[in-house]
Amino acid sequence: MRKLKNDELGRLSVEDFKKAKKTPVVVILDNVRSSHNIGSVFRTSDAFLVEAIYLCGITSKPPHKDIHKTALGATESVEWYYCEKTLEPLRSLKEKGYILVAVEQTTESISLQHFRIDRSKSYAFVFGHEVRGVDQQVVDECDISLDIPQYGTKHSLNISVTAGLVIWEAFRQFRMEK
After folding, report:
1. Does residue 38 lie in a domain region?
2. Which CATH number fits the domain that encloses residue 141?
3. Does the residue 111 lie in any domain?
4. In Å, how far are 9, 47, 65 from 130, measured between CA atoms?
5. Which of 17, 97, 26 is nearest to 56 (CA)?
6. Do residues 25 and 172 make contact, with C-beta atoms less than 8 angstroms apart?
7. Which residue in 99, 126, 151, 165 has the most C-beta neighbors within 10 A?
8. Looking at the 3D structure of the chain, how many domains does it have?
9. Are 80 and 21 a contacting pair, CB within 8 Å?
């Protein structure tokens, strides 16, 4: 077994990425405070052809050295928007027919392993603040809440880890399942 070199990986150029068919998923970051987490979400969104990222509230936006450090250029490929209030893009996306999904532990959460994508729909996944999670007003606007089962002593995962798991699962269901 030999490690592949970067030029053997067949990655898209930024121009080709922008033209590529996207996974019908957008990511909304609701007051995410860590620029490293934001950069990581950009990189994951690039990996799985996410349509766009909405950076809301206190969420930092590019250009920012700490976002750049973890995004490794994904801020150039993934379309992104900034909104002062998270409810703005939620309402706009809902009008466009997106299913709004709060990734949050609620009384009605669907566990990630039971979540099924309707391939005829588009989805907006909302990820929240590292300590407070997704704001309750934002949860109230969403159609579904989704959580990731955990079996240790902690009650949450890092937002960039959570985003990676959820975005991968959405990509897998949209692009890999028959």
Report:
1. yes
2. 3.40.1280.10
3. yes
4. 33, 23, 20
5. 26
6. no
7. 126
8. 1
9. no
pTM above 0.90, yes or no: yes
Report yes or no: 110 and 82 within 8 Å, Cβ to Cβ: no
Omega prior to 63 cis, within 30 of 0: yes
Report yes or no: 101 and 145 within 8 Å, Cβ to Cβ. Answer: yes
| Residue 140, number of CB atoms within 10 A of its CB | 9
Judge whether 8 lies within some domain.
Answer: no
Question: What is the predicted pLDDT for the residue at 177?
Answer: 73
Task: Show the domain range for 143.
Answer: 21-176
Strand, helix or coil for residue 84 = coil
What's the rounded Cα separation, in Å, for the pair 63 and 81?
13
Q: Other CB atoms closer than 10 Å to residue 134's CB: what's the count? A: 22
Which of 92, 76, 89 lies closest to 42 in space, CA to CA?
76
Reading the block at residue 56, the tokens are 């809301």
Task: Give the span between the Cα atoms of 109 and 36, in whole angstroms.
Answer: 27
What are the tens digits of pLDDT across the range 57-103? 999 999 999 999 999 989 999 999 999 999 999 999 999 999 999 99
Give a yes or no: residue 14 inside a domain: no
> CA-CA distance, 16 to 13, in Å (whole number)?
5
Q: Is 94 helix (H, G, I), strand (E, B) or coil?
A: helix
174 neighbors 117 (Cβ within 8 angstroms): yes
Q: To the nearest 10°, report the CA torsion of 161, 176, 54, 109.
A: -60
